[in-house]
Design a protein that fits this description.
Length: about 140
């Protein structure tokens, strides 16, 4: 595996995280209906989600916010030939921060820790874009 194609493994891991959060949200919603805490019609409007499925739903939304910049950076690095070791390490660091962020969000939901992990992912993504800028300069 060349370093340029290695950039796709963290991208695939980020996609897997998104699917895991989808499954978790679905499981929590089904569990809420079975427990009588919610009705299927409650999910027409996100604000009526019970708390456990609401946090999973909100985290799912998060998987389509900052990760969009991650995917764009990875693909840009790949197509310009800048997906070297530093870019791959940064990509894995981003994914690890996102996995940790998702874990905290859907479990304890401790805002201080969640914010720190989000900021870490944001800064790693900034590094990815700086790597791209240096590479194409």
């Amino acid at each position: 595996m060349t370093s340029s194609t290695a950039i796709f493994w963290p991208m695939l891991a980020q996609v897997l995280l998104t699917y895991v959060v989808y499954a978790l949200m679905s499981s929590r919603r089904i569990g809420a209906v079975k427990a009588g805490v919610a009705r299927p019609s409650d999910f027409k409007v996100p604000s009526t989600d019970p708390e456990p499925s609401a946090t999973a739903a909100r985290n799912l939304t998060n998987q389509f916010e900052l990760p969009v910049l991650f995917f764009a950076a990875c693909l840009s690095l790949f197509v310009t030939g800048g997906a070297g070791m530093a870019a791959v390490v940064a990509a894995w660091a981003f994914v690890l921060a996102r996995v940790a962020h998702a874990w905290v969000h859907v479990t304890s939901n401790r805002i201080k820790i969640r914010r720190m992990l989000f900021t870490l992912g944001l800064l790693v993504n900034l590094v990815q874009w700086l790597l791209l800028a240096v590479h194409i300069a």
